[in-house]
Design goal:
Blueprint: H1 10-17, H2 54-63, H3 68-77, E1 85-87, E2 93-95, H4 96-102, H5 106-114, H6 121-126, H7 130-139, H8 154-160, H9 170-186, H10 202-205, E3 207-210, E4 218-223, E5 229-233, E6 239-245, E7 248-251, E8 258-264, E9 267-275, E10 278-284
Antiparallel strand pairs: 1-2, 3-4, 3-10, 4-5, 5-6, 6-7, 7-8, 8-9, 9-10
Helix pairs in contact: 1-2, 2-3, 2-4, 3-5, 4-5, 7-9, 8-9
């Protein structure tokens, strides 16, 4: 293994892996960016030192959605990365094993587990561990209503268990289907119910919004791979917006974040991102 080629350019990864945010399935036809070390091994310590290099953490979580070979290279290089967790935006925390879980990559899950990753109820759901998930819910009633990374529900993780169905034994398939049925019967394991955004309304929200003069001081509203509205840093992919009211959305289900759009007639003029300790208004510029 060439340790000189283990850190990707952070910008390249953010334009790729963040595009997966809010999805329950991976992108198809995705081109992995070339991996290059950003800092020589003997060079000056990076700003976050002695923490792990942020680029490494970002890399392994992003690649855990779809790229087993690169995940292996990164974790063999720094075994601690098997437990890595990244915050995409607004408290949307995702571990490497969490990334593999919601896209149904059983092979990546099993590799990370072999290297010390910590599973949770969402991982067990993806593995079709019927008795384990049922036991956790019985021990902690109501936990089935919790969402995983990107606001993805427990039931969605269970459904992802059949993504690699051709690799499963008949018993594993039976347990996966049994778990899906159990969670469906509970009636509240598929996350909050949000309002629909009509296809006719979506285009009016799309575009760039600026809150400052700097080239990076703004947001981009676009459609993700599920054709849902999403918010990211300007020019970048971001997390899904779930409608909770008239021109009002929550970011990937984050309970303390509200995104509202201001309009004149049928034209959207600005958006406001409101958090407990700040409120940012960004004017629509395109």
């Amino acid at each position: 293994m060439e340790t000189q080629n283990l850190i990707s350019r952070r910008k390249a990864l953010q334009h790729s892996a963040i595009g997966i945010v809010g999805l329950s399935l991976p992108l198809t036809g995705f081109s992995s960016p070339k991996i290059n070390r950003a800092t020589p091994l003997s060079g000056k310590p990076y700003p976050a030192y002695p923490s792990l290099e942020p680029d490494l953490v970002n890399e392994v979580v992003g690649k855990s959605h779809f790229d087993l070979d690169t995940v292996k290279k990164l974790v063999e290089y720094r075994p601690e990365l098997a437990r890595a967790t990244w915050e995409w935006r607004f408290g949307d925390f995702e571990s490497a094993i969490g990334a593999a879980s919601h896209v149904g990559r059983r092979d990546i899950i099993q590799y990370l587990l072999s290297k010390g990753a910590t599973p949770d109820i969402f991982t067990f759901a993806t593995l079709g561990a019927y008795e384990t998930v049922k036991g956790i819910i019985q021990l902690s009633p109501g936990i089935q209503t919790s969402s995983g990374p990107h606001g993805i529900s427990l039931l969605s993780h269970a459904r992802a268990s059949l993504r690699m169905e051709e690799t499963l034994t008949s018993t594993e398939k039976e347990n996966c289907k049994k778990l899906i049925g159990y969670l469906e019967e509970l009636g509240n394991a598929d996350g909050p119910k949000y309002k629909d955004v009509s296809e006719e309304d979506k285009p009016k929200y799309l575009g760039d919004y600026k809150y400052g003069e700097g080239k990076d001081e703004g947001f981009t509203i676009q459609l993700n791979m599920r054709k849902m509205l999403s918010l990211g840093a300007i020019g970048e992919f971001g997390g899904a917006l779930y409608k909770v009211g008239e021109n009002e959305f929550t970011y990937n289900g984050a309970p303390s974040v509200r995104v509202t759009f201001q309009h004149e007639g049928d034209q959207i003029k600005s958006l406001t991102v409101k958090e407990p300790d700040r409120e940012i208004i960004a004017k629509k510029v395109s």
